[in-house]
Amino acid sequence: MIFCTIVCCKKRDTWDDVYTNTDSINFGNSYQDVINDYNDSTDNIHDIPAIEPIKPKYAIIWAIIAPNSDSILTKENMSSYQSIGSDVIEMIDVSEDAKYRKMDEFEKTLYKDGAVPTGMNIRQRKILVFDSYAEASKQREEFIK
Prior knowledge:
- With 145 residues, the chain is of the alpha+beta class.
- It contains four helices and four strands; from the N terminus they run ααβββαβα.
- The mean pLDDT is 77.
């Protein structure tokens, strides 16, 4: 029992050293010194070259829907075709993979929403990519006419 009391008192003394009195700490820096150090450190930031933000591209997707019986798409059987276009889509990645992924998503949406009538299939699809939203929207408008 006496042994535990002595050990506990010793432990307590070591913990007293951990919690120092903050009044006795001398920071040594004035407010002006801190501001000068901050300004010196921000000067280095200005030397770093700016990274250009990635500018998005804009795309529209067109699908031609034709009857299953038509084996070849021709001008003669054009009256039985339907053309459907997407809204303008913003794209950061314009790689071939990304384009085909967007076309597949659009095609899946058309089938799911019932935009492709019975006895017809999507026979052709195309994606057009533009630098600005206005260009994409104008081209979409031309297809709608």
